[in-house]
Specification:
Length: about 325
């Protein structure tokens, strides 16, 4: 659903539909001046969070930041952000706090742990969860923060680091619809499309479904490459032909052919993150009673790649499970 009308955008809208669906988002972009007094903070300045935080700083003109990576903090401080020594200090100095963290256990600890954000944010503050944390974690965050008079919206993101840097993410907002709409001025600084997905946790469902597919393709791509290789067929034809057929996918065309099959595993989306998301997706499916047989087979691939020490590499390193010769270090 769009924040404008609460409508599902399951198919690409035509020009007329698109203009209506995005009216709220586009009109809000011109009202940023109404929110200049809002003190915004960002915790988690990694591959995705760093780009998102940079866009808020540039467009809002103020940002408090906190991250254990001093270099990531320094890059933003050099552009005018304010360094906060701890999440607690940041919470006390902000009206809105965004979290972009690598694991739900970290999100829960920072927000709800002893002396955490919840104890330092004032009633009426807002926490925006940009992380892929799974339904259970975001529902726990929502309930605990709501009990303290603090609003929470779940807003994981689609696309990768280049889109984060360009402010071109797709954002999957969920929670109280009026709260989500009231934050559109801020969300639109990070994304070009903002969807309202439903109650808290709905954004996680959409994001995990996305990653179930996009990260799952890699297992079959790895097997297909190994099969063609062992048959002695021309791998150049494999790489040239498949993107032009129904076998094409975004990971095949952007991760495996130009990078993994060339021995380049520079992280765009770390394998450790894909592995975490796959576990979260399967846990969600199991809790809902929906099938996950294929996903559990893919999860075995991620476990093998992680055990082999590839967690810090790009998720294209899944190809190394069946094709270890691709690692040319």
């Amino acid at each position: 659903m769009s924040l404008a009308e609460g409508r599902c955008l399951a198919t690409a809208p035509g020009p007329a539909q698109q203009s209506q669906s995005y009216f709220f988002m586009n009109s809000e972009k011109f009202n940023v001046a109404m929110h200049t007094d809002k003190r915004v903070g960002f915790i988690g300045l990694g591959l995705m969070g760093g780009g998102m935080a940079m866009n808020i700083l540039k467009k809002h003109g103020q940002l408090n930041v906190c991250d254990p990576d001093e270099a990531a903090v320094a890059r933003l401080v050099a552009l005018g952000a304010t360094r906060m020594a701890s999440a607690q200090e940041l919470g006390a100095a902000c009206d809105i706090v965004l979290l972009s963290l690598p694991d739900p256990s970290i999100s829960l600890a920072i927000a709800l742990g002893p002396d955490g954000l919840a104890e330092h944010l004032a009633p009426g503050s807002v926490v925006i969860g940009m992380s892929t944390d799974g339904i259970d974690a975001v529902r726990q965050l929502h309930a605990a923060l709501q009990a303290r008079g603090i609003s929470f919206i779940d807003c994981p993101v689609g696309k990768g680091p280049p889109a984060a840097a360009a402010g071109d993410l797709r954002l999957f907002a969920s929670g109280d619809q009026a709260t989500c709409a009231s934050l559109n001025w801020l969300l639109s600084m990070m994304g070009s499309t903002i969807d309202y997905c439903g109650p808290v946790g709905s954004g996680q469902a959409i994001k995990l479904a996305n990653n179930l597919l996009s990260c799952g393709y890699g297992a079959l791509i790895s097997e297909a490459y190994a099969m063609v290789k062992e048959a002695g067929a021309d791998l150049n034809i494999f790489c040239d032909a498949l993107p032009q057929t129904a076998a094409n996918s975004w990971p095949l065309q952007n991760v495996f052919i130009p990078k993994a099959f060339q021995g380049d595993f520079t992280p765009y989306f770390r394998l450790s993150a894909a592995h975490k998301d796959y576990k979260l997706a399967i846990a969600m499916a199991d809790a809902l009673g929906t099938p996950s047989r294929t996903a559990k087979t893919v999860l075995e691939y991620y476990a093998l790649a992680t055990q082999a020490g590839h967690g810090a590499r790009d998720f294209g390193a899944l190809a190394l499970v069946n094709n270890p010769e691709l690692l040319r270090e």
